[in-house]
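Continuing the series of single-chain predictions for the mutant panel. This is the parent chain; the variants come on the following pages.
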Amino acid sequence: MTCASHAGRLDTSGSSSLLHGLFTAWQRHAVTLRTQHRLARLDDRALCDLGLPRDAVQPPRARDNPDLWLNRLSAGG
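Parent structure:
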């Protein structure tokens, strides 16, 4: 009987195929998109926590820095 460890995936770089490389790239892209979405949602929550009106800042784009709206507020007033 074998036991699965929590150490992560085995390194298969010596026998990697093109399909494996594409799958790894797709996984990284999906993780990046999820992270960007979570950061954009964090801005909305932080805005509500601070009690600022929604029209005080522009909604963040996916490529914006997560604290961009703070820079806009400090520069604007």
